[in-house]
């Protein structure tokens, strides 16, 4: 398995590279963002380990660029940092990082996350395990796009639709979807109120909810996670970003 490690801390790189190579991984390391992005394109890594604090470009921008590059967009990215704030975690998720690990960490924790991310990436079509998905959005175009994306991933997925939070709650009483994709701005009952009301009922608490919205402020994202969402997807989205958001739900450490 190939790993690209992007970090300017030489001691950290030496220790992690040595221990990973002792486990059979092939590790290429870059001290700068530009060097790391070059290696990520050239080395065909199974995973990219990316520090936030780099001398030339911060890790969030690097992650964003890697996710926009056709050569690296499907490679899982594990961000590592001494920063342990919710804002940094949300920022990492917003730019597409699959997971986040706080320095200093136990080596076993790193191995666990690497193995999980590689396994998930090799089985990227997680949506195949979804039998029923509820899409809640007042815009018929968005509902159709989401439904089409899900059907393209797996034609057997059953897609339920609702136009607002109230009708979605009523539908939940009749159906038990494996996943809910919900917009924020809707008439009658917005997405945030829907999430709060759904999470108040024991029978709905285990249903993962991804908020799909144009609202992308850190305050709104924090509010959504505090209300009980399991993921957050910003419009406009692609089929790949939708699948990535669903994949993140399968890793309890995300």
Q: How would you characterize the overall build of this protein?
A:
- With 254 residues, this protein is an alpha/beta fold.
- Helix 2 (33-42) packs parallel to helix 3 (59-68) and helix 7 (165-174) packs parallel to helix 8 (191-199).
- The two termini are 22 Å apart.
- The protein has a five-stranded parallel β-sheet with strand order 2-1-3-4-5, sandwiched between helices.
- The protein has helices at 10-22, 33-42, 59-68, 86-94, 107-122, 140-153, 165-174, 191-199, 218-227, 239-248; strands at residues 2-6, 26-30, 47-51, 77-81, 99-102, 132-136, 158-162, 179-182, 209-213, 231-234.
- The protein is elongated and about 55 Å long.
- The mean pLDDT is 89.
- It folds into two domains: 2-122, Response regulator (Rossmann fold), CATH 3.40.50.2300; 126-248, Response regulator (Rossmann fold), CATH 3.40.50.2300.
Task: Summarize the entry for a quick read.
The chain is α/β, with parallel strands linked by helices. It contains ten helices and ten strands.
């Amino acid at each position: 398995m190939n790993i690209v490690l992007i970090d300017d801390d030489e001691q950290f790189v030496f220790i992690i590279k040595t221990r990973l190579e002792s486990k059979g991984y092939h590790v290429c390391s870059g001290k700068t963002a530009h060097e790391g992005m070059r290696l990520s394109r050239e080395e065909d890594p199974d995973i990219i380990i990316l520090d936030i604090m780099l001398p030339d470009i911060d890790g969030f921008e690097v992650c964003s660029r890697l996710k926009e590059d056709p050569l690296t967009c499907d490679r899982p990215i594990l961000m590592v940092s001494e920063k342990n704030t919710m804002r940094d975690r949300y920022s990492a998720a917003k730019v597409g990082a699959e997971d986040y690990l706080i320095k200093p960490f136990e080596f076993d924790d790193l191995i666990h996350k690497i193995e999980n991310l590689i396994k998930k990436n090799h089985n990227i079509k997680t949506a195949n395990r979804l039998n029923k998905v509820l899409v809640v959005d007042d815009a018929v175009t968005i509902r159709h796009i989401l439904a089409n994306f899900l059907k393209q991933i797996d034609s057997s997925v059953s897609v339920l639709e609702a136009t607002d939070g109230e009708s979605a709650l009523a539908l939940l009483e009749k159906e038990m979807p494996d996943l809910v994709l919900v917009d924020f701005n809707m008439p009658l009952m917005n997405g945030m109120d829907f999430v709060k009301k759904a999470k108040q009922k024991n029978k709905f608490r285990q249903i993962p909810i991804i908020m799909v919205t144009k609202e992308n402020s850190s305050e709104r994202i924090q509010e959504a996670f505090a209300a009980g969402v399991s993921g957050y997807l910003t419009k406009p989205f692609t089929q790949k970003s939708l699948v990535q958001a669903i994949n993140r739900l399968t890793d309890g450490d995300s």
